Structures are given as C-alpha cells and as structure tokens.
C-alpha cells in the first residue's frame, strides 16, 4: 500500500498537468467518470494516503488500497486502468485503486492537522487523541488515519524500532516523554521515507521491516500479524520494550 510520502511524490510528479483540462476519460471504474470530461484541474493535493484532484465544482479522490499503482504518460500493457485521465500534454493512469467524487470543498472534507506530512500537522492534537485511547496498542495507533494520516505499515515498523517500543505496548503505559517521541518520530520518519523514496534507496534504510536480524542486538527478529489491524509487524524482543 502506498504510504503518505509516496502520495506526496505523486502530487509532485503530476505538476505538469496543473491548470490543464481533462480531454479524455476512460477506465473500468463504476463512478460517473463522464463528469470529469472537460474539467480543468485547479490543484493536486494529498491527505494521508489519498490523492486528490481538485476541480471547479467537485474533487476526485484516489485511494490506492493495498495494491494500487499509477503510470504517468504510459500505460500497463497487461492491465486495464481503473481510471485514465487524458490531457493535451499527456495522461495519468490509475490501477487497482478506489476512486470516488467528493462534492464538498476539500478544506471541509479533510482534517489537515492529522496529516503527518502537512504543513498544518498538529503534534499536540495527535497527543490528545492518543491519550484519549489508553488501551490502544501502539501498532494500531500508528496506523490510525485519524491520528497519523499517511502512516502505513513500513513507517509503523520502523518508528517502533527506532524508539525501541514493542508493538504490543499500550498507549496508556507509555511515559509522557516516550509518547512525545512516538509522535515526533512518526512525522520525522515520514519525511525520511520521502527523501529515500525519491532517491530510490528506501529499502536500503529499513532496519526492521521485512528484516530477519536485529541490527542492534544481532539476534533474530520476531514476526507476526498483530493488533486489531492484523498487519505484519517485525520487532526485537531484546531492545524493544513491552510497555503494558
């Protein structure tokens, strides 16, 4: 699943289409895609894992789910796009994703303060929301898009390894200092992810995600599908403390 930093990169890559009119629309989506014909793109935005195309009277939301992808100025020969947008200057093709319209203004539809990569990110708000759920597991909290919009499984595993916290720890068991560290590292790692992804070296920097051995303790990492979200976790039983 593309995480927030990847969507920010997509937003940057489609800048050449900004201000241009959608001339051609196709794809196997069931939404009323004809509405997009002859619509002028006013802006491209992102919120967490949502890619947003703002048009004069409504917006298009693209969510890449688990296996979604995109191609700019090219198409996959083996797959039909969920949605294809053609412009005078090129095209954008979206695959295996969810697309829908948003009728209200985006500033009313989205909580920009929850987006870890937004300039409006509010650390204090994230802390307040975490403290209101003391029984929540940290592995679930980091994937809660109402708290950390844009954080996905890779960021979750790497953040918990960085701050030495076991994924089955509960929010209420963390000290105030450790909770602040969790929040700040979620944002910091998202920007590290963004830089590494742009340089095509992201996987080289993984310390825990999909790894077999702890680089600190040199012992086998544990692996399991944990928490309410049941997503894959990788952790070290020795250096990641279980707070419970």
Automatic annotation (TrEMBL):
Domain of life: Bacteria
Domain Formamidopyrimidine-DNA glycosylase catalytic: 2-102
Reaction(s) catalysed by this chain's protein: Hydrolysis of DNA containing ring-opened 7-methylguanine residues, releasing 2,6-diamino-4-hydroxy-5-(N-methyl)formamidopyrimidine
Alphabetized GO MF terms: damaged DNA binding; DNA-(apurinic or apyrimidinic site) endonuclease activity; lyase activity; oxidized purine nucleobase lesion DNA N-glycosylase activity; zinc ion binding
One Pfam family, short name: Fapy_DNA_glyco
PROSITE patterns noted in UniProt: FPG_CAT
SMART domains for this protein: Fapy_DNA_glyco (SM00898), H2TH (SM01232)
Annotated Gene3D superfamilies: 1.10.8.50, MutM-like, N-terminal
InterPro entries: FPG_cat (IPR012319), FPG_N (IPR035937), H2TH_FPG (IPR015886), Ribosomal_uS13-like_H2TH (IPR010979)
Family: Belongs to the FPG family.
Name recorded for this polypeptide: Endonuclease
């Amino acid at each position: 699943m593309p995480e927030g930093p990847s969507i920010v990169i997509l937003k940057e890559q489609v800048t050449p289409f900004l201000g241009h009119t959608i001339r051609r629309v196709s794809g196997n989506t069931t939404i009323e895609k004809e509405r997009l014909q002859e619509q002028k793109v006013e802006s491209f935005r992102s919120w967490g894992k949502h890619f947003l195309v703002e048009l004069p009277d409504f917006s298009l939301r693209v969510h890449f789910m688990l296996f979604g992808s995109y191609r700019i100025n090219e198409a996959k020969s083996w797959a039909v796009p969920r949605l294809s947008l053609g412009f005078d200057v090129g095209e954008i093709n979206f695959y295996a994703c969810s697309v829908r319209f948003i009728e209200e203004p985006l500033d009313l539809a989205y909580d920009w303060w929850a987006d870890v990569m937004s300039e409006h990110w509010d650390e204090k708000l994230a802390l307040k929301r975490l403290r209101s759920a003391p029984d929540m597991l940290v592995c679930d909290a980091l994937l809660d898009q109402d708290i950390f919009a844009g954080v996905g499984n890779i960021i979750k595993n790497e953040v918990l390894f960085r701050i030495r916290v076991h994924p089955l720890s509960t929010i209420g068991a963390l000290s105030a200092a450790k909770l602040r560290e969790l929040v700040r590292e979620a944002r910091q790692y998202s920007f590290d992810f963004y830089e590494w992804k742009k340089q095509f070296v992201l996987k080289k920097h993984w310390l825990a995600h999909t790894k077999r051995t702890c680089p600190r303790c040199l012992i086998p990492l544990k692996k399991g599908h944990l928490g309410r979200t049941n997503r894959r976790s990788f952790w070290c039983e020795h250096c990641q403390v279980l707070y419970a």
